[in-house]
TrEMBL record:
Belongs to the ComF/GntX family. CDD domains: PRTases_typeI (cd06223). Residues 259-269 have a biased composition (Basic and acidic residues). SUPFAM superfamilies: PRTase-like. Residues 318-329 have a biased composition (Pro residues). It comes from Brevibacillus agri. Residues 259-329 are annotated as: Disordered. This is ComF family protein.
Amino acid sequence: MRGSTCVSCGGRVNTPKREGVVRARASWLSRPVSYPAIYRLLHDLPACASCIEALPFIGEQFCRQCGRDMRAEPYSSEGRCRDCVREVDEPLKENRSLLRYEQDGKSLLSLFKYRGDERLAGYYGTLLAIAAFRFYTPSRFACITTVPLHARRLQERGFNQVDLLAAYLGSATGIPVRPLLTRIKETEKLSKQGGRASRQESMREAFAWNEGAVLPGFARGRSDSRGADHRNLTSILAAGIHFLFGNWFSLRSSISHTSHEAKSGERDSQANPVPKLDNRNRAAHANTAPNSNSGDRAAYANFNPNPNSHDRATQPNTAPPPNNRIPLPATPPKILLIDDIYTTGSTLRSCARTLRAHLGTVCEIYSLTIYR
């Protein structure tokens, strides 16, 4: 950082005041477990102490759905803003944003997006990484994906600024970056569109699954994975039924055999009754009788309730093998969808619907932006 200049105001980055500002901001933004990562990122941010202090961070009072700063707005009963309460079909699990979108941010972001000032990629990538560590646990995500540009817009602009941010974010968090979507519908800039309803309509079916994209740990599409799960579950249930019925027939055979022996013994005792002993012969019989207790123990130790099984160790194991037991449901894959700004959420929701249409509704889509 020595000798570097602030990307926002052009002033010196290294000043005696800066370390104290970085520590204070890192402490305010982080939980105990995330403090080291956020402190390191703020320390490496190419901004001076004054510009770091002036960043309009969203505080602790924000909408639990879209991440809007709620200091000046009333909460609903669910902790959501009035726009999110009205939203009926919400494909996003939640959105989180780091900064309020104010005039200074608008000017700096336009330099990055529309004038191609790629020096700001590191600055905004670092801010996005701070947001990830502040609001999420990065290791829980299967991958990072981005909002793609239409081919014509990409040709005009020369680069997709969000792809650069994703590269920085993936490097800082260790989450793999995967381009899961393509843009198939060209739309006007959202800033030129009328209102919330028109923006949502323009983004309807604007994205498609990127054929050839592979999500780590979830390579197959929804229909294929469900079919494989169904086949696997069927075979496991068949093995379990075989195990249960095999034990039932063995137990039934054992009970039948034991009952037959008992009836035979009863008939023999009726045919050859045991003579009764009088008082004089009881003592003599007690002296000549074997130790019945030891004999009973030996007989019990050698008793086999299933005479057909012989030695259990030599019999094949009819129980399902441990690796063939019914699997517990896997943790739903979590995808981190990133963009530079959340305005109405129309773009991010459209992306999330496309992802869930391909991967299944069990997939959880979280979004992360710099500005809100």
